[in-house]
Amino acid sequence: MREPFATSHTEVEERILRSVLVARPSVLEPGCGCTTRLARHRHRIRRLVGVAPDEQAGLENRELDEFVPCEAAGPLPFQEGSFDIVYADFVVDHLARPATAFREWRRMLAYGGNLVITTSNANPLMRLYRSTARDNLDRDLRSAGFARRELAGGRRSTLVAWYHAV
Predict the structure, then answer these.
(1) φ and ψ of 102, to 5 deg
(2) Beta-carbon neighbour count of residue 63 at 10 Å?
(3) Which of 121, 96, 116, 94 is nearest to 105 (CA)?
(4) Residue among 140, 123, 122 at smallest CA distance from 131
């Protein structure tokens, strides 16, 4: 049975972020751009690191403590377990190899760390990407070493996923 999506994805995401942004975590944002939706939570984040292939956009992002120009799917130039949270905001639907990215993001997280994803599931062209369909996203994240905390959204709405590293 599918979970109902009774509220907007931004409200679900906000609730999840309030739950995970405790104790001033270290956060990795793969696919960051020139802005971040984490800006309103910046005071709750000890270290915010962005990675993306668009070096100019990353360097323009004033909220980041550090920016590294590289592909969001990796390999990422950080030690295993370097982050408490990986936050991927509308990135998964742009990845050529999402399962590879999920494994690399898991490597980045400390045991029990949190992964928060928002991704489009409304555009039929985006659903061609294997990991944006709800069941495929869940399967690929579990296969990469994550356990589901929450997966909200339906067939034609934005998905919000909260998983933790196991």
Answers:
(1) -60, -40
(2) 18
(3) 116
(4) 140
Beta strand 26-30 with 47-52 is: parallel
* Model pTM score: 0.90
Mean of the per-residue pLDDT values of the chain = 88
pLDDT at 93: 82
What counts of helices (H) and strands (E) characterise the chain? 4, 7
Question: How far is it, in rounded angstroms, from Cα 67 to Cα 50?
Answer: 5
Strand pairing class (146-152; 66-69): unpaired
CA distance 53 to 123: 24
List residues bridging with 119 in a β-sheet. Answer: 159
User: Class assignment of domain 9-165?
Assistant: alpha beta
The domain spans of the chain are 9-165
Q: Which tokens sit at 128?
A: 């061609």
